[in-house]
Amino acid sequence: MKFFVREAVKEDAKQILDLIVELAVFEKEPNAVELTIEDLEKDGFGENPAFTCFIAATEANEIAGIALIYYRYSTWKGKVIHLEDLIVSEKHRGKGIGTLLLDKVVLYASELGVKRVNWEVLDWNEPAIAFYEKKGANVMRDWNVVQLDEQGIKNYIANI
């Protein structure tokens, strides 16, 4: 089966969400996805898209993987791209789709002239870590991800 990479369009939103849910299950967070198809359509394909999404698909338009990215700004580097998720459906892993998607992200970043592409990987996801390191990525194990979720934001504001 042959796969090609293209930029996602609004009509891909349902398949994109299906892959996001599949990733949440894989990452042991099956109930964490609050995002809807409508959110993806509005946020990614409107007048001022919040993200760019590349998809790996078959000629029959079955989406086998996605790479969702957006701009960030580094106080040390300037414009950078954040790879929020690189997802390959479990049934299509081992077919080179992750490489196709990562290649597209890196080529896109180069075309934009950004100074860095960054992303996170779970410390227990050894196959992904090995994949990224094989591609030359620096997996920085001495950094911790810090987040305030929606409730954390509300709690924070209540204490200001």
TrEMBL record:
> Can you give the residue ranges of the N-acetyltransferase domain?
3-160
GO molecular function terms noted in the UniProt entry: N-acetyltransferase activity
Q: Which InterPro entries match?
A: Acyl_CoA_acyltransferase (IPR016181), Diverse_Substrate_AcTransf (IPR051016), GNAT_dom (IPR000182)
Listed PROSITE patterns: GNAT
| A Pfam entry, by short name | Acetyltransf_1
**Keywords, ordered alphabetically:** Acyltransferase, Transferase
Please state which protein family the record places this protein in: Belongs to the acetyltransferase family.
> What is the protein name stated in its UniProt record?
GNAT family N-acetyltransferase
Annotated source species: Oceanihabitans sediminis
